[in-house]
């Protein structure tokens, strides 16, 4: 486990905007409680609370990855409009203590879904 610091900063802040995630015209998540995670020089990622996502459209996959800063990630595919978008969502169900805020949240690959921020 590594801790964020000056060489690899990670910040988590509440997003004041509404965040809507859709795939093929189907809304997957819609929230006013997203968290914006900024990590080093990577693009910001919106983490959406699970309770604001349509979990009936999601299917857990076998894929897992490890981040030395956040912990082990699990993945979901989206099943909407008769199509499956494989491993399009990741989640840290038991993140490392420094990243505890993102537990219970989902993050979406922006090249696989549409993520809109609405004022």
TrEMBL record:
PANTHER family the UniProt entry points to: BLR5716 PROTEIN, DUF427 DOMAIN PROTEIN (AFU_ORTHOLOGUE AFUA_3G02220)
InterPro entries per the UniProt record, alphabetical: DUF427, DUF427_sf
The organism's place on the tree of life at top rank: Bacteria
Protein name (record): DUF427 domain-containing protein
Entries under Pfam families matching the protein: NTP_transf_9
Domain DUF427, chain residue ranges per copy: 19-111
